[in-house]
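job 3f2a | input accepted
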Amino acid sequence: MTCLKRIIVFVLALVLLVGCAIDKPADPPGKTDEGLGLIPRSRESSPGPHRLPAELKVHFLDVGQGDSILIQFPDGRNMLVDAGGNDDASKVVSYLKKTDVKRLDYLIGTHPHEDHIGSLDTVINSFQIGEVIMPKVTHTTRTFRDVLEAIDRKGLQIRPAKAGVSIMEDGLLAARILAPCREDYDELNDYSAVIMLTCGEVSFLLSGDAEALSEKDILASGVAVKADVLKVGHHGSNSSTSAAFLKAVGPSYAVISVGAENDYGHPHQVTLDRLRKQGVEVLRTDRQGTVLFTTDGKELSFTTEK
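job 3f2a | predicted structure (306 res):
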């Protein structure tokens, strides 16, 4: 009888123990069991410290032998870096309207060459403009004068583009100018506004037509140039994308804005070989058309449209 009582007591204790375990309240939201390495599903799906609730879009427009880059920020702001040549006005304006752009908060002309600023005057006349940013260098062409006149007619001022200027900084988003580093270059290309665009853990380096001398000055300044995406300088010319500069940037992707069968032989084979040896995936507007990168600050993807 004594043995039977012990068995009954043991069974009752076991039932009570199991019941308590089943009724144990759940951990409060966000609590983790470090010992087991468990992470609640809610944390897995929510934006992390380097992830945006919306996406940044960077469009490398196919404007032939020229440059034009549209940047759309998650909060609705827009930036246009260059606008192709004189013959690209309708293409650029049409693309901006197709992507629902009504205002350009930042309009940047990297340097005064026609294949970069040719359609800036039409863009200025077609959209609301916030800031105009250009390097402190002039040119004698009619194209350059047209841009200045369009700026003047709208009562806009030019903010000088030079190393150290912050275009915008807002939480995980930032756009800073790394060059020009000097005001005494012989070549207009070396006055190019070189822009570092960062979004969380993802970065883009937009180098205009900056050549090896400007690249050398950027590296000498000690500023960080590491980037996931490099807009290759001067349409892939061998005058840009020096070995030292490319190694420092270390991109996963390189975008070359270039016209098909152009008269300059761009992109030059030495540049393509340099990119290939470093394992960089090359995207060319003459082959893939417009390239659109999308990122939330953590993940990076791209599509192309020919």
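job 3f2a | The longest helix spans residues 2-23.
job 3f2a | closed
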